[in-house]
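Lab meeting, action items carried over

1. Structure of the two-component assembly. Owner: GW. Status: complete.
Input record:
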Amino acid sequence: MDIEALGQCLSSASCLVTQGMTGMIAGLLLFLVASGLTLIFGVLGFVNFVHGSFYMIGAYFAYSAFQATDSYVAAVVAGTLGVGLLAVVFERFFATRVYDKDHMLQILLCYAFILIFDDLVEVIWGNDFISMGVPQQFVRDPYIILGGVIPPLYVYLIGISLLFALALSLLMWKTKLGKTIRAAAQNRDMVSALGINTTLLFTLVFALGAILAGASGALAAPVRSLTPGMGFDILIESFIVTVIGGMGSIVGGLVASLLIGMVRSFGGIGFPLFTEGLIFMMTATVLLLRPNGLFARRAD
Amino acid sequence: MHKASLLRDVIVGIIVVIAAVLLNMAIGTPMLRDLALRLCSLGLFAVSLNLLVGYTGLLSFGQATFYGAGAYMFTLLMQKSGLGIPSAFGLTLIGVSLLAVVVGTICVRLTGVYFTFLTLAIQMMFYSMLIAWSSFTGGEQGLTGGLPKPPFLGIDLTNPTHFYIFSVSVFVVSLVILRRIVASPFGASLRMIRDNADRALFLGVPVQRYKLFAFVVSSLFATVAGILTSLFVSGAFPNFAYWLTSGDGLFMIMLGGASNFFGPVLGAIVLIVLDNLINVHIKHHGLVLGVVILFVVLGMRKGILDYLAEIFASYSERSATRRSQP
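Predicted assembly:
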């Protein structure tokens, strides 16, 4: 425990900026993943434990695409679309079979795939930590704000994440498709009775959720080290976001994600070995005080 | 609790222990003992988890917390204090049960996937504590350095035969106790809670309190399983508390059948056999295990014993209909 270091950081503008930025990025990337998870759980009622694997695969696809083409754009596209395709196959052939079943069956199905994906990744890319590295266009002088060092890549990541979040919100609230999706989340049978192809809709929603995770993985690839099993941590955090933020609330998800990002970043200074514990204590407190989350819209 | 059923269970238990002893005398290979010992801890872990999953309807993904805590506390007590095995055993049970009361109180307030998730989160926090607090827990290496096994009551656990009989006996005694709990009115209430918690509440069942009891009892026997494992491997390691261990537990239950008391034991046997086969021949253990789970989930949709029970039930129904027709 190093409270002094934490105190020092909080009183120094440069440290506040640097750590704040790091926290914000971690939070936004987490928000993307968590939104995908909430979407899938909210609309399909499916507990998608494979979500972390989608994030991981997005990162690895991005890595390979980058190795092949040296283009960051290609990497992000590869990660996003690759995961989307994989998700469609997973949903059509496997997830549909357990939609209306016991949650335990769903979790076990996902557990099977976590094992399979982790091992496949190990077979294809190896067990070591690999690093994508910062793409050429971002190797420039960092911005200095209030004495804090901010790599240009960070600004870009924040911008892109916010764009994704905005696009998602627009889709869900301003388009007919979004309205249909929200309706299906409330009453699937009714939507089906209105003549809408719910099967197709569900595949679409699942793919959308997975794409969010894959995109986040691809975006994060330059600033993370890749290893099989990296999906698990983000899976747990996404669930925490859903639980703290409240199911069905985008704002809640954003607040919770940023909160976790900041706790990780500042907490990492003050309590380097116990950051997990901090996050957990925060989760437990929220759950005990507001069992439906901070911004819950539906009593589940 | 019917005295007759208790007697029956005890007699069956004694027969099983004797059979195990005879088996060892007939085929006394180390491999047989190893398999049996692993079955004792994994099987007990799975059955204890099923008390929550199959009988109370609480899908806990975090029982490895208590399995690990049991192993670590017991190992630490044996390594650091001068206590004998029975005292360390007893203290560990008490200590981890207290932990279970705290964790359980927090968790049973939630239901469904939120409950599952909170148990998982607590377990991962426990795991990261085990890794981080390396001065106390040995960090990633775990508690190496061996586990002293001083003789007690004429039993010497360094002797393979003694250890074998000891483990099998602990396993059987634990199963008998669990079976009695399941067959008791308390067990019936748990099943009622599983099927319809609201109705149980209206009928006067103290649902929250019973869920907590079930949680603590389940954790107690997970602790015993952890102690057996630590005796077996002479130490305690962080992966005992890793989520994959909880996953293995669920897999054993799923494979063997959640509706049958012995289903998880069958599941444990299958898992151990699979593990042995896979590890000997194939490097990518996760891949094969994952595919097997897929087959079970998509193909059978229920455990082996559940499947067999269904076939048996429909068969006896058919023959009863035949009999009732003139």
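2. GW to write a short summary for the group page. Key points so far: Residues 30-56 of chain B form the longest helix (27 residues). The radius of gyration of chain B is 20 Å.
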